[in-house]
Amino acid sequence: MIATTADKQGSDMDPARTYGDFTESVPLEIEGLTIVFSPTSVSLKERWKNNSLSADFMADYFATFYALHGSDEEGRLEYVKGAVSFVANELIENAMKFTDVEGIPISIRLTMHEGELVFFATNGASLEGSQMYESAVRRLLNADPWAEYERRAQANDGTSGLGLLSMLTDYSARLGWRFMPHDDKRLLLTTTVRIPL
Q1: Nearest residue to 187 (alpha-carbon basis) of 8, 11, 9, 17
Q2: pTM (predicted TM-score)
Q3: Neighbours of 24 (CB within 10 A)
Q4: Residue 92 falls within a domain, yes or no?
Q5: Which of 42, 81, 86, 100 is geometrically suited to a Cys-Cys bond with 63, CB 3.0 to 4.6 A?
Q6: Which structural domain, as residue segments, surrounds residue 186?
């Protein structure tokens, strides 16, 4: 089972629901990189093939930043670059997969804060779509990540979730989610991923 903070199920004052190890924010003065995708400018199906290009761009950008501000002990630069590329690609793909509303952009932000890579990915979703994703999050949080990864990999049935499980097993990631009402028909979904450096 994943070690998590207590789930906050919201209240009359805060209708948001958070799960896992959700990170509220990182100060905006901390240098980072944000990419925003408009779901109405190009269809998500057409944009899908560019997800890896966007993720690799983030990895190259951050590798340069990391090299300037850190040391490359034992080839850590390649590890950081690989982690950024993998996690960014998975977050972009998940955001696009679960975006089923118009008018809410998809964004991904990456920064380094207190010795961790910190990712924020946000997208809009309908009430129905967000319920499916929230259910998947609950299942993930109640599973043993290693056993669940092995089960899904052996099943080889196209079941989603291997990317998130890989973040947990390969990168010791701390994952969190927030489901925030946007209006009476849509929610904002924010996923945070923190990876120790």
Answers
A1: 17
A2: 0.84
A3: 10
A4: yes
A5: 81
A6: 36-196
